[in-house]
Amino acid sequence: MDELLLRRAQNGDPDAFGQLMEPLEQLVWRVCWHYTGNREAAEDCGQEAMIRVWRNLANYRGECALESWVYRIAANCCMDWLRKKKRDKSVSMEPLREQGFDPADTSPGTEEQVAAKDERQRLREAIAQLPDDQREALILTQLEKIPYEEAAQSLGISEGTVKSRVNRAKARLKEILSEERELSPPGNVKKDERRPRS
After folding, report:
1. What interhelical angle do 39-56 and 14-21 show, nearest 10?
2. Rounded mean pLDDT of the chain?
């Protein structure tokens, strides 16, 4: 990281801030996408995160990597959004599908593509149900592919705690997804499988 660029940005130079943040914009977008599963919400959280970074950059002292510091701010924005969403009774908890977390694909898809998209959506919905600490650890290490050591630094916890949270998150995801499969209505019954009326 260019120290001079950082100092200029901390002193309120918007051009320096833009140059400093440009390499981190994709990180912020991905983090917000993984947390919210919703394009519009990810954009809103990403913009809020950049505003918070701008307002608080003068307080950055370099105790951790700038990337980790920015990640933490983006994650906090998303957690605030998720908490607000849970409090808002007008928002259905049937959510991500209705909110259109994926852009509409107008081209016809194969059954495999549709099934894969449904599976990704189920996974995002399941991740959204995890406790905050487990979700954070899982997103960082499994989706963002950040090494456990760096994730621990970013979260301010030990590497062992990160691994423990990830393991608990994976176990909980399996439970959620298996419960969902048990509760989902059976598919269409084929004609030859129907019992004849007596």
Report:
1. 130
2. 79
